[in-house]
Amino acid sequence: MADYDIFELGNVVLQSGATLRGAKLAYKTYGRLNASKDNAIVYPTWYSGQHTENEWLIGPGMALDPEKYFILVPNMFGNGLSSSPSNTPPPWDRARFPGVTVHDNVACQYRLVTEKWGIERLRLVVGWSMGAQQTFEWGAAYPQMVERIAPFCGSARTSRHNFVFLEGVKAALTADDAFQGGWYERQPTKGLRAMARVYAGWGFSRTFYRERLDIEGMGFASLEDFLVGFWEGLFLPRDANNLLAMLWTWQHADISANPRYGGNFEMALGAITARALVMPGQTDLYFPPEDSEYEVAHMPDAELRPIPSIWGHCAGGPGVNPADVKFIDEALKALLQS
Amino acid sequence: MADYDIFELGNVVLQSGATLRGAKLAYKTYGRLNASKDNAIVYPTWYSGQHTENEWLIGPGMALDPEKYFILVPNMFGNGLSSSPSNTPPPWDRARFPGVTVHDNVACQYRLVTEKWGIERLRLVVGWSMGAQQTFEWGAAYPQMVERIAPFCGSARTSRHNFVFLEGVKAALTADDAFQGGWYERQPTKGLRAMARVYAGWGFSRTFYRERLDIEGMGFASLEDFLVGFWEGLFLPRDANNLLAMLWTWQHADISANPRYGGNFEMALGAITARALVMPGQTDLYFPPEDSEYEVAHMPDAELRPIPSIWGHCAGGPGVNPADVKFIDEALKALLQS
Fold first, then answer.
1. H-helix or E-strand spanning residue A42
2. Do A245 and A97 form a contact (C-beta atoms < 8 A)?
3. What is the pLDDT of residue A316?
4. Cα(A262)–Cα(B112) distance, rounded to whole angstroms?
5. Which of A194, B4, B70, B314 is the most buried (most CB within 10 A)?
6. How far apart are CA A218 and CA A324, in angstroms?
7. Do B167 and A200 lie within an 8 Å CB cutoff?
8. Which of B159, B167, B192 to mutate to probe the A interface, most A CBs <10 Å?
């Protein structure tokens, strides 16, 4: 029994020029849309994550309270539930799955929100990491619709350094001959494990490792136990082509890649009229605070509030550190009341 | 015609318990040892580097001036010139090459310096990155012999985060089936290229990439041109087992792994009586300044002087940024005059 629904998008022409035929957007909702349709929140997923992996920030008494809000979690294309290399029929399957941008994702989420429910205003868009990238995109692409955004541990455009980090992840995954250029019948597990190890150095901070939080904080028995148990365990169940599809989306994230802005990044930032609370992780190694500072400086109604955490990128999720969850949750509460 | 010499070490019993039989230490000297034998400087090599790749910091008018000093550059074991997986005869060749520590390296360098030349005091030991690790080791293992040390962009012990970064490098290299567990007849070029891409995100800083110094500073035509031309070009000519042997050395670097200190890191740091100038790169992603701060705080005669550079780890080498070379060279001049 699937715990989510599918919105049939039909044929979607993508920014890359390809068409995603019979596109499907998988989503889950929490809470009820009220009569005036003004209690909706959109909360997109992160790299490789699915809607259930967003639930650590949803709950009674939390900012994202299903008793007050109608919370919609759309699954990002490529994540295995929405249209992905692993679930798209030939000839557009696997290695032929087209490049889907963050803009494409959000345009389809917009259709879901407006066509299915007739929602005209969103109380909030919020997300972690690539979820933050989709959040920025909502603000830039549909400024009239979004009252508030809260992107955390993410950026409005993928930086060149972040792009290079991802090149390393991709190279490790595809170095495995079992990948077969994407035409594998069995997952390239050696490559998946290799990419997990590459990721491990980036996902948490230097201080996290120095203070042995893999052991003292997360309860693993040793560093190797953590590398296998947390990191390999995170990526091994995922499909390689799906991971590469989302990686492509990530590498091409740019809110100004939109005819309205013509590649002018500062203009796109300036168009985000939503009240914005931008929360980088203070020790995030690949979405560093200085990129968020630049973005906030070019947005008309934005506040920068770094998460004072030594958990690196994982200050933002997926709910691994209770103190960070509390910080984010309280910030969202205040934002929603403003 | 080789431009270096070989010091025959005989059979060397290693910290790992193995014996490096017929061990060879390749080295090159610059300048002449004076009659009182008090003008010697040791300048070990870095990860994957050979003596010629240290020469950017040697020259007339520079701190390391061959007209004044006798500069000895010992090649690290595993680098293809000193005993390495690629040049050791069976049965200790290739994947069977034993683990060699930084301590083992320096103990052999000590023999070269004392047995071959009868040198009793070193004016300076200096090095970048793993060369810095050997420099710290000289200070801790032979405190009576070393007057000054100048480790830059390196650490006295490999941090847990740095260890994890290297796990990613190793996983990418060995994910290539052509590696064949180290028993390849042809180099695993896909794995070498993958490790180069993993390395690319770590070797330079986020600001380096943000300011497009790959293009504006180093003259590459594009980011991809840089990834292939600089990074793949750096590692592709090297032997995979050699790279893994040096990576093992790096992961196990620890000046306190010495019977004298019994794993007490602070005690080992406290034993470094040499005047020390410790220069981390201000934006180094894997040998971060905070680790150097800790070390300096526990050393009796040490000064911390971060290299004010946005070139990340490559602030320290191999001579890619003239401003950084000047900063390091001037610091070394002052240190040598002190």
1. strand A40-42
2. yes
3. 86
4. 64
5. A194
6. 14
7. yes
8. B167
* Banded model confidence at residue B212, pLDDT cuts 50, 70, 90: very high
> Judging by DSSP bridges, how do beta strands A5-13 and A19-30 pair with one another?
antiparallel
**B174 in A contact zone (CB under 8 Å):** yes
CB contact residues (below 8 A), chain A span 179-198, against chain B: 190-191, 193-195, 197-198
Complex ipTM, two decimals? 0.96
Mean pLDDT of B155-176: 98
Interface of B with A in 294-333 (CB under 8 A): none
Report CB contact under 8 Å: A197, B170: yes
User: What is the CATH architecture assignment of B5-159+253-337?
Assistant: 3-Layer(aba) Sandwich (3.40)
What positions of B carry a catalytic annotation?
Answer: 129, 284, 313
The two beta strands, A70-74 and A124-128, are unpaired
Per CB-CB distance under 8 Å, the chain A contacts of B293 are none
Those residues with Cβ within 8 angstroms of residue B56's Cβ, 6 or more apart along the chain or in another chain: B317, B318, B319, B325
Q: Which of A173, A206, A310 to mutate to test the interface with B (most CBs of B within 10 A)?
A: A206
Whether A160 sits inside 8 A of B210 (CB atoms) is: yes
d(CA B23, CA B7): 9
Neighbour-count burial of B185, counting CB atoms closer than 10 A to its CB (0-12 exposed, 13-18 middle, 19+ buried)? exposed
pLDDT class for A317, splitting at 50, 70, 90?
A: confident
Query: Minimal CA–CA distance to B122: which of B232, B188, B44?
Result: B44
Question: Mean pLDDT in chain B?
Answer: 97
Instruction: Please tell me which residue in A48, A129, A155, A292 is annotated as part of the active site.
Output: A129
State the pLDDT at residue B317.
84
- Mean pLDDT of the A125-144 span: 98
Nearest CA-CA partner of B227 in B251, B240, B209, B244: B209
Q: Half-sphere exposure of A259 toward its Cβ, with a 13 Å CA cutoff?
A: 2
Contacts 24+ apart (CB under 8 A), B287-291: B287/B129, B287/B132, B287/B153, B287/B154, B287/B155, B287/B162, B287/B313, B288/A206, B290/A206, B290/A207, B291/A206, B291/A210, B291/B155, B291/B159
Domain spans of chain B, in order of start: 5-159+253-337, 163-246
- Catalytic (active site) residue A161: no
pLDDT digits (tens, 9 = 90+) for A184-238: 999 999 999 999 999 999 999 999 999 999 999 999 999 999 999 999 999 999 9
CATH architecture of A5-159+252-337: 3-Layer(aba) Sandwich (3.40)
Interface touch A175/B176, C-beta < 8 Å? yes
Question: Which has the closest alpha carbon to B22: B70, B89, B67?
Answer: B89
| Half-sphere exposure for B183 (CA within 13 Å, toward CB) | 5
Residue of chain A with shortest Cα separation from B201 = A165
